[in-house]
């Protein structure tokens, strides 16, 4: 089990490019595999999660070649996958398991999906239920992985009200809908990331969105395309917060995806008084990109608006570090989903903040954080093998006078394999041992 030792640093500078978007990288492999023709991808995230998806499709007979961040997918069409001879191991990746379930529910063959210790604890009932309504047959371990998906079922379209605002569940149902008879619709309680819809349109498969209702009709075909994956705003978020809290900071993050369903972190940091400037907006392959300059900021505590929660769902560990460095109290409620991510991100962050002397109150569906000063850590921070917890506490070192030790940082490579190198190139002082 590896750990970070983060020595204090107080400056952050430079022009940085973070790796490709994880959500988009997963979807490139899935849709490229199901398309007719050859899909070329550049900027692919070489993180373990996206690679788990890539390997799963290789095991289902898809020829996929990769040279660093360039991937060529020889699509087999919607009905061209073949039965894998082993269970598909999706590692730490909830996105892989939930989205692939939608595809596998409609195949002619049986499959089994497994994951690591963390993924094996995550709720899958949220995808099993709508898929069962469509006619799928899936066995689980009381709603958790492993999933055994029985092939040979014919699926019917549904009009599904999402019980939680989840892009993974929406995407799972839409992917199953590609195979279902009739029009499948998903109704979202709040807008969630729309990469599946955008990318399906990019593969010439029509998806219609009216307000929070998203529909497609089964029985069509996907046509291969070229995809350039933009930088992941969820990885960029660590550097946004880092630059806001560092006493002397001026950085620019290049080519970051600013899809409006992902930009909650920018809005939240700006509401807190963060000094962020978005420029050079451009569109590439149906996704918006921009360069983002961030300078040291005097942050204020806020009440986080409810509608921004799904738009910043992965960024809360980093936002909690911003809140710890703000003047006054930050309050987050309506965010129960954070308890079922790669770890219970409310409790695990609260435990780490306690070790750094930051006053906080854990709520059932959120947290209250009183901004303050990081004191000498009263122990080692446990990340519970959650990549985003590890990186969040690493950036706290920009406001610390003492080294911070963070245990269990191995999973940083699921989403941000060069985090340590990039952080150090910008002025941080991190070692992984
Ligand atoms: C993702 C959706 C989100 C997010 C996850 C990636 C996706 O999960 O937390 O990291 O790619 O669709 P939920 O759909 O569970 O909110």
From TrEMBL:
UniProt xrefs under InterPro entries: Enolpyruvate_Tfrase_dom, Enolpyruvate_Tfrase_sf, EPSP_synthase, EPSP_synthase_CS, RNA3'P_cycl/enolpyr_Trfase_a/b
Pathway linked to the protein: Metabolic intermediate biosynthesis; chorismate biosynthesis; chorismate from D-erythrose 4-phosphate and phosphoenolpyruvate: step 6/7
Binding site for phosphoenolpyruvate: 22, 94, 122, 168, 345, 388
One GO molecular-function entry: 3-phosphoshikimate 1-carboxyvinyltransferase activity
Enzymatic reactions: 3-phosphoshikimate + phosphoenolpyruvate = 5-O-(1-carboxyvinyl)-3-phosphoshikimate + phosphate
Location of this chain's protein in the cell: Cytoplasm
Any one of the GO CC terms: cytoplasm
GO BP field: amino acid biosynthetic process; aromatic amino acid family biosynthetic process; chorismate biosynthetic process
Enzyme Commission number, as recorded: 2.5.1.19
Pfam families assigned: EPSP_synthase (PF00275)
Catalytic residues (positions): 314
Stretches assigned to the Enolpyruvate transferase domain: 8-420
Keywords: Amino-acid biosynthesis, Aromatic amino acid biosynthesis, Cytoplasm, Transferase
Main subcellular location of this protein, as a coarse class: cytoplasm
Coiled coil regions in record: none
HAMAP family per UniProt: EPSP_synth (MF_00210)
Family listed: Belongs to the EPSP synthase family.
The protein's role, per its UniProt record: Catalyzes the transfer of the enolpyruvyl moiety of phosphoenolpyruvate (PEP) to the 5-hydroxyl of shikimate-3-phosphate (S3P) to produce enolpyruvyl shikimate-3-phosphate and inorganic phosphate.
Record's protein name: 3-phosphoshikimate 1-carboxyvinyltransferase
Encoding gene per record: aroA
């Amino acid at each position: 089990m590896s750990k970070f030792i983060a020595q204090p640093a107080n400056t952050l500078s430079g022009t940085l490019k973070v790796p490709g978007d994880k959500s988009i990288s997963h979807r490139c492999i899935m849709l490229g595999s199901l398309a007719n023709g050859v899909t070329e991808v550049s900027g692919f995230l070489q993180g373990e999660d996206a690679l788990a998806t890539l390997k799963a499709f290789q095991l289902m007979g898809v020829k996929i070649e990769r040279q660093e961040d360039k991937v060529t997918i020889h699509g087999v069409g919607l009905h061209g996958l073949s039965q894998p001879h082993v269970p598909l191991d999706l590692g730490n990746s909830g996105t892989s398991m939930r989205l692939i379930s939608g595809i596998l529910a409609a195949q002619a063959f049986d499959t089994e999906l497994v994951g690591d210790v963390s993924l094996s604890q995550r709720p899958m009932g949220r995808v099993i239920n709508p898929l069962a309504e469509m006619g799928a047959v899936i066995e689980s371990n009381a709603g958790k992985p492993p999933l055994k998906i029985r092939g040979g079922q014919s699926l019917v379209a549904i009009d599904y009200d999402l019980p939680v605002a989840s892009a993974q569940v929406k995407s799972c149902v839409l992917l199953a809908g590609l195979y279902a008879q009739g029009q499948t619709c998903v109704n979202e309680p709040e807008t969630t990331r729309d990469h599946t819809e955008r990318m399906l349109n990019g593969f010439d498969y029509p998806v219609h969105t009216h307000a929070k209702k998203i529909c497609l009709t089964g029985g069509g075909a996907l046509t291969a395309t070229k995809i350039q994956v933009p930088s992941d705003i969820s990885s960029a978020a660590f550097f946004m917060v880092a630059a806001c809290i560092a006493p002397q900071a001026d950085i620019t993050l290049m080519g970051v995806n600013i899809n409006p369903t992902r930009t909650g972190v920018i809005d939240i940091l700006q509401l807190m008084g963060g000094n962020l400037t978005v420029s050079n907006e451009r569109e590439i392959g149906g996704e918006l990109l921009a360069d983002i300059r961030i300078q040291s900021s005097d942050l204020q505590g806020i009440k986080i608006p409810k509608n921004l929660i799904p738009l910043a769902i992965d960024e809360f560990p980093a936002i909690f570090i911003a809140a710890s460095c703000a003047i006054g109290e930050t309050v987050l409620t309506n965010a129960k989903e954070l308890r079922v991510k790669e770890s219970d991100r409310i409790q695990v962050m609260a435990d780490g903040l306690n070790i750094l002397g930051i006053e906080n109150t854990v709520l059932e569906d959120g947290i209250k954080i009183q901004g303050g000063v990081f004191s000498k850590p009263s122990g080692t921070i446990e990340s519970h093998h959650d990549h985003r917890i590890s990186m969040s506490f690493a950036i706290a070192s920009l406001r610390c006078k003492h080294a911070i030790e963070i245990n269990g940082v191995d999973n940083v490579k699921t989403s941000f394999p060069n985090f340590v190198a990039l952080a150090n190139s910008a002025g941080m002082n991190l070692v992984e041992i």
